[in-house]
Specification:
Keywords: DNA-binding, Metal-binding, Zinc, Zinc-finger. The longest helix has 11 residues, at 28-38. With 77 residues, this protein is α+β, with helices and mostly antiparallel strands. It is globular, with a radius of gyration of 13 Å. It has a two-stranded antiparallel ribbon with strand order 1-2. The model has no long low-confidence stretch (mean pLDDT 80). It is 23% helix and 8% strand.
Length: 77
């Protein structure tokens, strides 16, 4: 299943480019900031959990310095 960019007026999907796609944050305050920056009224009534599971933003919406290319996993004791 391809990822689509959730930003207003974006039609990019992962099968069309080498762009990275990022899930909406799980943290409610940060997730709300992403929704505001997307300028899409239809996302405003979604929960942060719904947004995290179903919506993505492409790397074009982030400064290169904001992107960490390593994965962080919680370690088990």
């Amino acid at each position: 299943v391809p990822n689509f960019c959730a930003a207003l007026n974006r039609t990019l999907k992962s099968t069309q480019s080498d762009l990275a796609f990022f899930r909406f944050p799980r943290y409610p305050a940060r997730c709300q900031k992403w929704v505001e920056n997307c300028r899409r009224a239809d996302l405003e009534d979604k929960t942060h959990d719904q947004l995290n599971k179903r919506y993505r933003l492409c790397a074009k919406h982030f400064a290169t310095s904001m992107i960490c290319r390593t994965r962080h996993f919680a370690s088990n004791p």
